[in-house]
Amino acid sequence: MELTVTIEAVGQGGICIARHEGRVVFVPDVLPGETVRVVVPEPAENAKFWRAELREVLEPSHSRIATRWSEAGPGGVGGAELAHVELEASRRWKSSVIAEQLSRLAGLELAVEVEAAEGDVERDGLGWRTRVQFAVARDGRLGGLAPRSHRIVPLTRMPLATSRIEGLGILGHRFPGADRVEVIAPASGAQALVVVSYGQPPKDADGQAPKDAGFQARRKQSLTAFAELNPDVSLVAVDEPNRRSGTRRPRGRRQGSSRTQRPRRELISGQDFVEEAVAFTLAGDRVERQFRVTGGGFWQVHRAAPGILTQALLDAVAVQPGEKVADLYSGAGLFTAALAIAAGADGQVTGIEGDQQAVSDSERNLADLPTVRLHRGPVEKELAGIPVGQAVPALDVVTLDPPRSGAGKAVVEQIVAHRPRIVGYVSCDPATLARDIAYFAERGYRLSSLRAFDLFPLTHHVESLAVLTPGPN
Ligand SMILES: C[S@@+](CC[C@H](N)C(=O)[O-])C[C@H]1O[C@@H](n2cnc3c(N)ncnc32)[C@H](O)[C@@H]1O
């Protein structure tokens, strides 16, 4: 069905909202105020909403510009939903999403300005990704997934990535039989790493895996050729026995079940980790630290994100010497290190992280900070193991940086039980953040400040830092 609609507002996930005869129509690749011609592929009569595809912009918004990436947008790859939006307008878009979630889920009316990272305005929102995960087409070419689909769109460019990643020439290489290729090029200029993952090949109709004698040979040949062409880049091949080829690893996953087999990693060349460097200022002194992150482990994606978020968190919670701090969802120890330095020799910082490899990395990254204790396990379980203080709070400060699913009610209850003087909540999802802010409010913690950062330019994603303190709303 073809329709002409006027776009009313931004929705979630980088798409906008229009209405047709009272029904909500979700439209991608547009801007509020535009009049557009769209097609609704499945206009079910009893559906509450329809999903449309853009065909033609009849009256463009003044914030529309020529797309920076022709392989994204209508019919193309996902992951750059705002490539057609002027950069400042894209930050206003994200501000309105945060404001809408806070209003709807936390009952708060707040104007939030989304801050640009240094250098991003000059680069028009391009060249920021230090990590990119590509899907692999049947012929071994690298690509990305079309939105809301498993269709792989082969790519010739990746303009959101840093020039180091584009410079590797990886998009010209083929990885036959692979499932996923992750490219990591630390912002510090340290050695880059490519991780090529192979799932189980899809089974035949009789349930047998196809026996392709040439497969191993082709795989070896492509890996060897890449390693020879890129002697300065580390290369790792990963076999994932539990994953069928073509299926995606769920993002922001909870910690895994014990029945799953561990992936097998083969080091083809170089090293199975990258070295990241982060600088921040504490009490007027510049501090620079190195972090080792094992291949594929979590690290902030934007080249400037680790420094920006660490500094913002330090400034917001202002840890005092001797304070007791918990850093939840601590990853490779990025915030834990800065918090431990701030708390000094008489302080104590407890890091809680569920991923075994991230905990091993953080043990190494924080080895020179004797006041740090690391707990491996789900936050909901490990935090419950920290005794709640009686006269003195067991925790003065709590920081958390959960996956997109947020912390949730049980974790919020456990945090509040410690009566910390301040909570610093770093979030990559405005909806779960707003929901958790409401849980805090029900338990006597109010939102005292909120900053937001455009650390995923030209996508719908946005990073926020909420500060919560005890007191009436
Ligand atoms: C957004 S990352 C933040 C990491 C770190 N703060 C940083 O900036 O590098 C979230 C981290 O939470 C971990 N995680 C996810 N769910 C968890 C859970 N239920 N309990 C403990 N850790 C969890 C992930 O392994 C990941 O390292």
Structural class: alpha/beta
The figure for the number of domains is: 3
Question: What is the top-level CATH class of the largest domain?
Answer: Alpha Beta
Amino-to-carboxy terminus distance: 48 Å
The gyration radius over C-alpha positions equals 23 Å
Looking at CATH, the homologous superfamily of the largest domain is Vaccinia Virus protein VP39
Largest sheet: 8 strands, mixed
Specify the helix fraction band: 10-25%
Identify every distinct bound molecule in the structure, by name, code or SMILES: S-adenosylmethionine
Task: State which percent range the strand residues make up.
Answer: 25-35%
Strand order of the largest sheet: 8-23-24-22-21-18-19-20
Chain oligomer state: single chain
**What is the arithmetic mean of pLDDT?**
92
How many helices in DSSP terms?
A: 9
Family: Belongs to the class I-like SAM-binding methyltransferase superfamily. RNA M5U methyltransferase family.
Pfam families: PCMT (PF01135), TRAM (PF01938), tRNA_U5-meth_tr (PF05958)
Keywords: Methyltransferase, S-adenosyl-L-methionine, Transferase
Domain TRAM: 1-56
